[in-house]
Specification:
The complex is a heterodimer. Chain A contains 16 helices and twelve strands. By secondary structure, chain A is an alpha+beta fold. Chain A folds into three domains: 113 residues, no CATH class; 115 residues, no CATH class; 170 residues, no CATH class. In chain A, helix 10 packs antiparallel against helix 14 and helix 12 crosses helix 15. Chain B is mostly helical. The chains are: A alpha+beta, B mainly alpha. Chains A and B meet through helix 15 of A and helix 7, helix 8 and helix 14 of B. Chain B: InterPro entries: Spore_GerAB. Chain B: It is found in: Membrane. Chain B: Belongs to the amino acid-polyamine-organocation (APC) superfamily. Spore germination protein (SGP) (TC 2.A.3.9) family.
Amino acid sequence: MEREGITAMKSHEKKPVNPAKSIDSLQGLFQILKKSKDFITLSPPFNSLSIRISYFRTLVDANILHQDVLSYLSGRSFSSLQDVQAVLSFGTSKVTEQVEVIQKSVLNGYILIQLNESDSSCLLIDISKIEGRDITKPEIEFNILAPKLAFVEKLDTNLNLLRRKLLTPYLRVEQLEVGYLSNTAVAVVYIEGIANDQNVKEIIKRVSSIETDHVFDSSYLVRTIVDNPNSMFQQFISTERPDRVAAILAEGKIALLVDGSPFVITLPTTLIEFFSTAEDYSIPWIVASFFRALRVFSVLFSVLTTPLYVAIITYHYELIPKELLETLVVSRSKIPFPPVIEALVLEVVIELLREAGARLPTKVGLTVGIVGGIVIGQAAVEASLTSNVLIIIIALSALASFTTPIYSMGNTIRVIRFPFIFAAQLLGLLGIVIASAFLLTHLLRTKSLGRPYLSPFYPTRLSDWKDSIIRMPLISMNRRPLAASAKQPIRFNSEKAKKNRTSPRSDFDD
Amino acid sequence: MKKVPIEYQISPYMVFFLVNSMQIGVGLLGFERISAKLAGNDAWISTLLSGLSINVMIWMIYKILNQGKGNIVAIHHDVFGKWIGGAFSLIFLFYLLVTGATILRTYIEVVQVWMFSIMPTWILVGIFLILCYYIVSGGFRVVAGICFFGVLLPSTLAFTFFFPLQFADFRNLFPIMQHSFKEIIKGMQGNLFSYFGFETLLVYYTFIKNPKKSQKFAHYGALVTTAVYTYLMILSLVFFSEKQLASAIWAYLSMSKIIQFSFIERFEYILISFWAFVILPNVVLTLWGVSRGMRETFGMKQKYILPILILFIFILTILLDDRNKVNLISTWVGKSGFIIVYIYLPVLWLIQSLQIKFRRQT
């Protein structure tokens, strides 16, 4: 016994299991699968043949197995797998000998039927059961006047949501697999004839060249294939809204759906796209333009106000007129720190509250965090640790950073504030300008799928400006944005659209 | 000559921004004094004439480049052969490099005089050069992007041009043409240096898509500069009296001191800080141009040349530690710029044209 144990151990040592290697025989596959407790192999006693059914108990739908498979098999005899296939009328069934296909199918919830234990060919039937939550409202990218559907973790459900939005035969879905452990399904979705072929090819090339063991989220996957992984700025948009993805696909861009992730990635993108919402297109263009401009302004405000405060109070108080300076000086008169310490402390407090709010279970946490911030802030002022004016500035700039519709961009904006504060402390206004120049250079160097990130500003594409900081009327957007470099640049016939418009006439027009 | 791949090239309209951003630099802050000293209240005529003569030179540069096979390095190689041509290229590139260093040093001087009087030069220069390295290592498109924003962002400050008008005395301008033609021509000396910088066109020409189409944009860029300079010259003439102007080293900055809002005073601080955006294109485009030119002369990679150039500028700017030395080198750069643009380039054009004609005949 002992010796056997040792030899078994030795043989185990000799043949280390390597999950990265593919299995080449059916026998070998069975040997590995059998070690798991939830892998079941049945040899039903109801007929004379030695038919064998194998599956993962945890991956298949037991009801379908009993009602639609086992009950049809009982009391019959089969001479070939094709006979079995004919009896069991499932849409997705196949007879194959390829071990790779068998492995993949079994792991995806297929049952495997063999006529003999030693047979190498087997019948695979899909009776998989995928658990997941139901479709819910979008929570991160909340819009008031827009569809209320969000993606979920199931790839098929997400594709269903997307196809429902774009009922065209040209909507192409290419499926790839990533990760040798997770074998995650990744769908590259685009509209054939509109999306730029070069972009599609590039993205498929990049996704299929990913070297990793597992993928748990779409943003995780895309992190490994972005143009510049060291950039703080996201070079892709991750959204949970099917309407947004559909609109982006119609522009000629490409979407990446990853199984198990409720966020869909769209590429290529530009900086300005992060400040648009689906809602912008459903409200009057003047109002929409106002909100767009407000969001862009809020970014500048959020990044620049605290550094400006530090720079002006530290170096250039002459900039402030006497009357205004008085307010500032009075509010700072009892504070023992230099402005930069004061600002940094408050900024860190706000970041702490935000982070704590984000980790709290509900969205209420966020509100609690902000309210807590104001309470703490008030106490800090009364204890003369910070000035009133700075509290207002920092609270406002935090508020401004929450206006960006895409969550990750808000994070970036909050982080880049800190280098600006340090620069302001070092060189005052000049430091802020130099930090801005660094930021500008970084944005100029950043590319999304090889396309410039600062488009339509640089390189200048005047025709794209009508959907950037402002949003012009929809009728003027008869061309797809040049940033997407769509194959078919014309979206609709503007002449026809103008002619068809029913505008009320008055005596003035006659 | 290998052709520049299209993904590194820029659209022809960008030449407007490249030319304009290279011309408008630190000169704008204080070119007025010397012009006014030489040509009095007719200095604006010499400013205008300089601008127009610059346009003629741009026209000539395009003539040279359009009939050559590449940029100045390739043309030198073609016209003078490997050794002499290479030497000429190096002289030209050295001139560009020193220009860049001078511009940077002058700007740092402004910062030191007006904002941070005890800040050591090497810190300011060091920070600037790190930024420049980051920009130039991004490639020509990034450099051009900085030039683009270096025109666009500071142009929001154009409103400062109109504030001094409330104290303007237009009688200062009259009588027009009371100075002799010779004096007016002499006055051009005072402002020509401020117009220079466009000659980097000789290097980045091959990086323009359809370079022949870009000529009109180069002219527009130079014309905008001419308009701005002439306007500023008139503005300083009507704002200052002749004696005041003679002592105003940074005339434009002195004028901007009067700008006041209910929430901001001392506007020159903002102006000087923002001026970094105006200076950056000057420095990065020269750095890029010199490194590119050296790359083509020596066949070395720009990656290895750039740090050497940056170190050179760093040391040079530290050596220029007082006003007199800065003045000296500015004058030197201005003179060599004058020789290169107004004397050497026409000669080059002549030799090149003759050579092409001669080759065609044989």
